Amino acid sequence: MRTLAKALWLLFFSVLLCGVLYPLALWLVGQTFFPFQANGSLAHDARGNTIGSYLIAQPFTGDGYFHPRPSAASYNAAASSASNLAPSNPALRARVEADLKQITIKGEVPADIVTTSSSGLDPHITLQNAYYQLPRVVHARAQALHLPEEDVREKITKLLEQKAFAPLNGLGGEKIVNVLELNLVLRDDLY
Q: Is 120 helix (H, G, I), strand (E, B) or coil?
């Protein structure tokens, strides 16, 4: 009976510590010191409606917007996954070839235009990818705003330089930009 009582007390304290106190401590630290991140890094429109998260990619298809990387999860956060296709897999080659056929701009294509991220939900693209998409975005924006393409290109180029960053102060790879953040500025604040 003593052994059973000790086991039950150990179970009770383990559940209390791991199931209540530890999660509560993490929640308190998150809400106190990092409330924006702890609540999903959500983006809101002018009326306060949630329109996305800066941490999860979402599809943009209009010519006047920057497009994210392809998603193996169809941009569904509940189904986060990589494609798990090896470079030698014919299915991966076929998908990349199909994606490349849809690209109308000639020249060297940045890899992240046709490859998925590990989670399938990476909200960032490389700065090289953004510059590759720049002619399409500039042309569509200039037509929509009835402005010269040179003026629009200058503003969007400044925006890209302003929003670009290298993870871990350059130790984590090349410069990247958040697609949602760019597209919100293009939609609301460019002019």
A: coil
Residue 116: pLDDT band (50, 70, 90) is confident
**pLDDT of res. 172:** 80
Q: Which residues of 163-185 are buried (b: 16+ CB within 10 A; e: fewer)?
A: bbeeeeeeeeeebbbbbbbbbbe
Q: Dig out the tokens for 121 from the structure.
A: 């939900």
Phi, psi of 71 (to 5 degrees): -125, 125
pTM over 0.85: no
Q: Looking at the predicted structure, is the pLDDT value of residue 84 above 70? A: yes
Over residues 147-160, the pLDDT tens digits come to 999 999 999 999 99
Q: Six-digit token pair at 172?
A: 């984590």
Q: CB within 8 A of 155, min separation 6: which ones?
A: 190, 191
Question: What does the angle CA 132 – CA 138 – CA 143 come to, to the nearest 5 degrees?
Answer: 150
Whole-angstrom distance, CA of residue 80 vs CA of residue 59: 14
Largest pairwise CA distance in the chain: 85
- The alpha carbon of residue 129 and the mean position of all alpha carbons in its chain are separated, in whole angstroms, by 14
Cβ atoms within 10 Å, residue 73: 19
